[in-house]
Design brief:
The structure is a homodimer of 405-residue chains.
Chain A: H1 3-15, E1 20-22, H2 24-37, E2 42-47, H3 59-70, E3 74-79, H4 101-115, E4 124-128, H5 130-133, H6 138-145, H7 150-154, H8 157-164, H9 171-187, E5 191-195, H10 199-211, E6 218-222, H11 248-256, H12 260-270, H13 275-287, H14 292-307, H15 310-325, E7 335-337, E8 342-344, H16 345-352, H17 359-367, E9 371-373, E10 376-377, E11 384-386, E12 392-395, E13 399-404
Parallel strand pairs in A: 2-3, 2-5, 3-4, 5-6, 7-13
Antiparallel strand pairs in A: 1-6, 8-11, 9-10, 9-12, 12-13
Helix pairs in contact in A: 1-2, 9-10, 11-14, 11-15, 12-14, 14-15, 16-17
Chain lengths: 405, 405
């Protein structure tokens, strides 16, 4: 094996979809040394056990981790059992409450259960920062604190904004980036992955490693995935997400709802389709030789394949074709049970079917003729809909359910 | 005993010379409760074992502590073995280096040796904050940090000035006031003494005690004593101090060199002369019935009495009378050995006798006729003085030495 060729091959795979790399030169050097000494790189991704259901936005750095794993590197998946009690202030406009240890334990289990869908857990070392942070004493803390100045900390975007707005920033929040940095010293990380908004924290690891006399870690910042709306970042609370444990048809349907522009983003950071091929698809759409809808269906199938398997990907593709493209009702439709005998049109769309978050979107759809009951458009926003078992309700092109009673 | 009368008596003694009291009402309440329950108040004074020789400026809060002791309260004299490693940033324009533990041990011994001159050591509990601070773990530190915001900290005068000037403020310095406050929780202080510049730190103890559900300590801020020059605060490095271990005649002579105005300050915070009497002296000087020099001699004798004894006070008084007022040479004079046979007038005053820090003051004295060798004025600043054993050199009215070879 020509080491330089292999370094370039790995670098090309690893650079895909990365928003910022500090620095490419250092990563190249580390990969070379790793190959020469036959010592895998230690790659760190830390999460706080605060959340629950993972979506494909969370999966972006996790899938990058998987690439390192596939290339033979050592993945240390760090669960911030200790730091979760502080709460990462990143991007928050207010001080976060500390988590109880019960919540933490429950969240970790949910997290690990879902991780299996992305990482090779046999080759993943799960580490908990409570194991070393719990042992730190005041003297150690002071040594860490002495390596940073107040000015450095308040430079951080979310701190400076909150300070300028007169909102409280607890001193405990200054500890979060420092402890995240110390984690890198503790596990001897060569590379740390994170979202772009984590850059400040990731760089603190470099500071502390450098001060400790070790080689600073490479910081690899992944983009934050836009949600289905193409505007906000993907998040559960905004209901613009694709959960990695969602059913194939739901995943597929959600992919179909994104804009053509957003599709290329998802191709790059949420699938393994080679970038050359993505380039060809994009060119085809641009010159009119490929219909964007076809690219989107392919994207849907790719994403279902990642979190389920190829067969499910194909089946979801067929299902969508039948229901939406061929308007064939002879397929499984999502079912929703409604007890009432009669429901107002807007209430049906917003409260019963959760198709919309607010009434104004529902109102617009109805007046534009997108609301159909058994394929008949209902354009009166005040219409009372008689609920019957087996009736099919559509909202626009991509939302469809069968009502049961 | 009428408790209310006793409370007022104690309050009057304790309020003497205090610059700020937070708050008098609370101190009154605490004194009352102390008398009612027959439980002495716990009075804290903390020092960092950074310095060496104590001067009568350092003695101001120590003498206040002695008053509490004399009134039957419990004195906890806190030595900041732990915090000394951080260095209190108060009033400093730069981050202080940490002290080595050898320096700390040496400084503590020097400190305790001198304390005996002021406090009743039998009734003084000496405590070391390393005993509890060393045990704090990261989790405890986070709990402390969570009680303060960044905005609160950077309000502190010396922090905000340094930040505004773009000078570094280490994060570790934020810990100093917090740990000083935690010390008050740890030793359950009812009252903490400090200099006015310590107000910010002392108040943090109130915050932490309140949050811990205990009654906040009373903060008693003592003024910072001006040095002999009446301009700068008394300090060894400015050579404007009276050390508490200095010889009686030296102490006395230094007191005689202060201005008439400054004398009343010294009377109030550096002696036990009842304030009514100080008032009478002041009035006498004002109406011309008492010569200020007589008040100053009395002050000199009072200060020598405090750090030596009454007899030494009287002897220093007599010595000064003989040498300066009666110009009687038949007394012990301070002796200085000079090896050279001939020394320039300015060099003699500045380098050999240390009467002045700079040449310009020496030059002025000479031209004004204040420099006398064997009672003959030498007004030529370029004069070479022939050094002979037994010769008497005077500089102004209060500096006199006998030369030996």
């Amino acid at each position: 094996m020509d080491i330089n060729v292999e370094v370039q091959r790995q670098l090309n795979i690893l650079k895909r979809g990365v928003e910022e790399l500090i620095s490419e030169k250092e990563l190249e050097k580390k990969l070379k040394k790793s190959l020469e000494t036959n010592t895998p790189l230690i790659v760190k991704l830390g999460i706080d056990p605060t959340g629950s259901d993972l979506h494909i936005g969370h999966a972006v750095p996790l899938r990058k981790l998987k690439q390192f794993q596939d290339l033979g590197h050592r993945v240390k998946f760090l669960i911030g059992t200790f730091t979760a009690r502080i709460g990462d202030p990143t991007g928050k406009s207010e001080t976060r409450p500390m988590l109880s240890s019960e919540d933490i334990t429950k969240n970790i289990q949910t997290y690990l259960d879902q991780l299996k869908l992305i990482l090779d857990m046999e080759k993943t070392e799960v580490v908990y920062n409570g194991d070393w942070l719990e042992k730190l004493k005041l003297e150690d803390v002071l040594k860490l604190l002495s390596q940073f100045t107040v000015a450095q900390m308040i430079q951080r975007d979310d701190f400076s904004k909150r300070l300028a707005a007169g909102k409280p920033v607890s001193l405990v929040e200054f500890m979060y980036p420092i402890l995240q940095g110390y984690d890198s010293v503790a596990i001897d990380a060569d590379v740390e992955l994170g979202a772009t908004e984590q850059t400040f924290n990731l760089l603190r690891g470099r500071d502390l490693q450098r001060n400790a006399g070790t080689e600073p870690q490479v910081c690899m910042m992944m983009p934050i995935l836009e949600g289905l709306d193409g505007v906000e970042k993907m998040s559960k609370s905004l209901n613009n997400y694709i959960g990695i444990t969602e059913a194939p048809n739901d995943m597929f349907g959600k992919v179909m709802s994104i804009s053509d522009d957003l599709m290329w983003n998802y191709y790059e950071v949420a699938t393994d389709v080679p970038m050359e091929e993505v380039g060809r698809l994009k060119a085809g759409v641009a010159d009119g030789s490929i219909h964007p809808m076809d690219c989107k269906k392919r994207l849907g199938a790719e994403i279902v394949t990642i979190y389920h398997n190829e067969e499910e990907g194909r089946k979801a593709y067929d299902w969508f074709e039948n229901v939406f493209s061929k308007r064939n009702m002879d397929v499984d439709l999502p079912e929703v049970k409604i007890d009432e005998d009669e429901v107002g049109a807007i209430d049906l769309l917003v409260k019963k079917l959760n198709f919309f978050k607010g009434t104004s979107d529902a109102r617009r759809l109805i007046t534009q003729g997108g609301f159909k009951v058994n394929d008949v458009a209902v354009k009166d926003v005040k219409a009372m809909i008689k609920i019957e078992a087996g009736m099919i309700v559509r909202a626009g092109k991509k939302k469809i359910v069968k009502i049961t009673k």
